[in-house]
């Protein structure tokens, strides 16, 4: 790894934010809305580089930080919490984000004809949301369910591979008695395949070491039982 990749400059940031929180229906419905604008100068962004192993064949990946002259974030966050009545509650949230590299190029990608200026920064999906509810169907008993989703995003600022958008479904049944609580829960109930990280390199000799995307899966369907005591 060359010496010029071992150091980076100080980042400066200006942030403007405005929000509104409201109470409706005698406090049974609470909403909040927040808008923000962020300007980052000499933004410290994570990158990676492939280097030959010092012993034996193969390649190592080294993470490092580099400065992008300008990065701009514009976003909106909205939340809702509504006790419809003594049995039903609705909870929802939505986040919108436009986070772009305004002035930064990776020399290795430029050689491949890939420009980063104007592209979304890595791990910055355009939207995320959550929609769920709670049902209090008997004394001490609560059923909860929600869906959570995320837009596609670039895995890294060092290559052009990106994820797919996805939606996951979760649910739980909870019983509470005095200080004791037992919960049967499940996450990703439909066992959706989705990816949280991605890498782009060539390692397969049968493909003449052609570069391709390798991904890391998120958690599969997980079911569990939790017993807790509050003291």
Kindly describe this structure.
By secondary structure, the chain is mainly beta. It has one domain (3-229): Beta Barrel (Maltoporin, Chain A), CATH 2.40.170. It is 2% helix and 61% strand. The protein contains 1 helix and 11 strands, in the order E-E-E-E-H-E-E-E-E-E-E-E. Strands 1-2-3-4-5-6-7-8-11 form a 9-stranded antiparallel sheet, with no helix packed on it. The protein has a two-stranded antiparallel sheet with strand order 9-10. It is globular, with a radius of gyration of 23 Å. The mean pLDDT is 89.
In what order do the strands lie side by side in the largest sheet? 1-2-3-4-5-6-7-8-11
Shape: globular
Any low-confidence stretches, pLDDT <50, length ≥5?
none
Number of domains: 1
Q: Could you give the order of the helices and strands?
A: EEEEHEEEEEEE
CATH fold-level assignment = Maltoporin, Chain A
CA distance, first residue to last residue: 53 Å
Mind telling me the CATH class? Mainly Beta
CATH architecture classification name: Beta Barrel
CATH superfamily: TonB-dependent receptor, beta-barrel domain
Share of helix among residues?
Answer: under 10%
Estimated radius of gyration: 23 Å
């Amino acid at each position: 790894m060359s010496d010029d990749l071992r150091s980076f400059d100080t980042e400066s940031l200006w942030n403007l934010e405005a929000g509104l929180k409201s109470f409706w229906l005698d406090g049974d419905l609470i909403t909040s809305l927040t808008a923000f604008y962020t300007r980052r100068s000499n933004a410290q962004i994570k990158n990676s580089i492939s280097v030959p192993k010092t012993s034996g064949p193969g390649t190592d990946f080294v993470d490092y930080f580099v400065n992008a002259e300008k990065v701009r974030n514009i976003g909106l966050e909205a939340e809702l919490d509504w006790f419809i009545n003594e049995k039903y509650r609705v909870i929802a949230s939505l986040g919108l984000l436009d986070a772009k590299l305004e002035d930064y190029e990776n020399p290795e990608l430029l050689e491949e004809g890939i420009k980063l200026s104007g592209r979304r920064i890595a791990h910055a999906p355009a939207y995320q949301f959550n929609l769920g509810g709670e049902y209090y169907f008997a004394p001490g008993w609560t059923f909860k369910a929600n869906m959570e989703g995320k837009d596609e995003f670039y895995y890294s600022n060092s290559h052009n591979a990106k994820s797919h958008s996805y939606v996951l479904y979760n649910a739980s049944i909870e019983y509470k008695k005095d200080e004791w609580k037992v919960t049967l829960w499940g996450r990703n109930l439909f066992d959706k395949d989705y990816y949280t990280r991605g890498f782009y390199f060539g390692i397969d000799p049968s493909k003449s070491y052609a570069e391709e995307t390798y991904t890391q899966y998120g958690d599969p369907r997980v079911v569990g039982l939790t017993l807790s005591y509050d003291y």
